């Protein structure tokens, strides 16, 4: 059972169905009842926990087929966590392992390492290509239907379909309700459509719509990077790159004029300045988190743990450094370099380094892992 993609297909169907349903109900309750119904997240935690247990069992059963670097990366991060937690326990009388696994470092470690181990198990499962295609097609169908709600929300200004309901900020995500997941799903599937010849060009065009209407800079970054890498002409690439550099250089001068068209961003600009608008206050998160960096010990720099989750910058490269240190960060860079293989497939990781992204949501990372493997199997017979 634990060596069959069919079993994981149904496990993922149940997980995906509950995740999307619970998030929509939370959004519905927030808009109309003023309550987020966060209790529904308990079901998500249980399902993700069960899936992690299944993945661990499968990884042991399939250990001879899984690349050794997967185990190396996974075991290394787990060891970094336990060693760090051991020292925290020695230094603090109020340390709680239960609290760590439910709210702090342990929770983040489990959330982040599960997709890595799943990335070793999924490719070697029997019929993973077949069931991976079926799973992605079903999810894509939902996402395309959701685009209708995104467009309807944009045209008719429906609060329920807003990305940031009742905040006054522009953006429409339809039925989706998870800030870090809006752009990632559509960006990942747009990348997949570029590789998969069975997907029509019309689907590729349609998947661009939410990236522009969701109201996130991450969505625009996906849109720009995907289309930039899709340009075949070197001369045109050089021209587009040059124009992009010029716009970035003059961005601080252009922002005061641009924000006048948005009351929300105008308010952000008045309170936090140009860089607050550009980085969505992540620049302030960075300064806050790294304010005492010069006082850190060498062990904290190497193995992290000097800030406790959920304190974060919401930029992948910095967040991983905070929790796993320089050693953990190097291990993860090595993992993605070995696993992803192509620059186009690495776009979600690149985007995550500039914003809260795919690394913050286990569900998003699982989808990303499946897409990467489908692309490699379809195009590279790997």
Task: Report on this structure.
The chain is mainly α and 382 residues long. It has one domain (5-379). 71% of the residues lie in helices and 0% in strands. It has 17 helices and no strands. The protein has helices spanning 5-33, 41-61, 68-91, 97-102, 105-121, 128-156, 182-195, 201-206, 208-213, 217-230, 234-258, 263-279, 282-289, 298-303, 316-340, 347-352, 362-379. The chain is globular, with a radius of gyration of 21 Å. It starts with a helix and ends with a helix.
Shape: globular
* Average of the residue pLDDT scores: 91
Question: Any idea how many domains?
Answer: 1
What's the number of extended β-strand segments?
A: 0
Could you tell me how far the N terminus lies from the C terminus, measured between alpha carbons in angstroms? 24 Å
Measured as a percent range, the helix fraction is: over 70%
Cα gyration radius (Å)? 21 Å
The helix-strand sequence is HHHHHHHHHHHHHHHHH
- The helix count comes to 17
Question: Based on helices, strands and strand pairing, what is the structural class?
Answer: mainly alpha
Beta strand %: under 5%
pLDDT < 50 runs, ≥5 residues:
none
Sheet with most strands: none
List keywords for this structure.
382 residues; mainly alpha; 17 helices; 71% helix
In terms of topology, how is this protein built?
Blueprint: H1 5-33, H2 41-61, H3 68-91, H4 97-102, H5 105-121, H6 128-156, H7 182-195, H8 201-206, H9 208-213, H10 217-230, H11 234-258, H12 263-279, H13 282-289, H14 298-303, H15 316-340, H16 347-352, H17 362-379
Helix pairs in contact: 1-2, 1-6, 2-5, 3-5, 3-15, 5-17, 6-17, 7-10, 7-17
């Amino acid at each position: 059972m634990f060596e069959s993609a069919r079993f994981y297909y149904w496990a993922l169907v149940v997980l995906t169905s509950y995740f999307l349903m619970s998030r929509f109900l939370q959004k519905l309750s927030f808009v109309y009842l003023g309550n987020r119904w966060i209790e529904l997240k308990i079901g998500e935690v249980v399902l993700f926990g069960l899936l992690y247990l299944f993945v661990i069992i499968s990884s042991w059963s399939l250990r001879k087929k899984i690349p050794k670097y997967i185990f190396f990366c996974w075991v290394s991060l787990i060891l970094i966590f336990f060693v760090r937690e051991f020292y925290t326990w020695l230094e603090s009388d109020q340390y709680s392992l239960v609290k760590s696994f439910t709210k702090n470092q342990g929770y983040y470690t489990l959330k982040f390492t599960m997709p890595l181990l799943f990335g070793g198990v999924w490719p070697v499962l029997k019929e993973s290509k077949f069931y991976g295609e079926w799973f992605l097609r079903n999810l894509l169908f939902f996402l395309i239907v959701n685009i209708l709600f995104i467009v309807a929300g944009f045209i008719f200004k429906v609060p329920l379909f807003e990305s940031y309901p009742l905040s006054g900020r522009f953006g429409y995500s339809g039925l989706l309700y998870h800030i870090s997941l809006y752009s990632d799903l559509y960006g990942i599937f747009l990348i997949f459509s570029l590789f998969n010849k069975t997907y029509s060009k019309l689907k590729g065009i349609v998947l661009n719509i939410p990236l522009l209407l969701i109201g996130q800079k991450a969505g625009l970054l996906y849109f720009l990077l995907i289309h930039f890498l899709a340009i075949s002409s070197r001369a045109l690439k050089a021209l587009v790159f040059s124009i992009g550099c010029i716009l970035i250089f003059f961005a601080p001068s252009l922002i005061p004029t641009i924000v006048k068209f948005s009351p929300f961003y105008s308010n952000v600009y008045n309170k936090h300045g140009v860089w607050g608008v550009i980085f969505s206050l992540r620049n302030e998160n960075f300064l806050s988190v790294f304010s005492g960096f010069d006082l850190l010990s060498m062990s904290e720099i190497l193995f992290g743990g000097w800030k406790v989750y959920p304190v974060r910058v919401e930029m992948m490269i910095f967040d991983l450094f905070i929790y796993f240190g320089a050693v953990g960060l190097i291990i993860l860079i090595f993992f993605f370099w070995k696993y992803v293989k192509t620059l186009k497939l690495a776009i979600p990781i690149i985007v995550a380094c500039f914003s809260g992204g795919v690394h913050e949501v286990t569900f998003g990372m699982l989808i990303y892992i499946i897409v990467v493997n489908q692309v490699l199997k379809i195009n590279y017979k790997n």
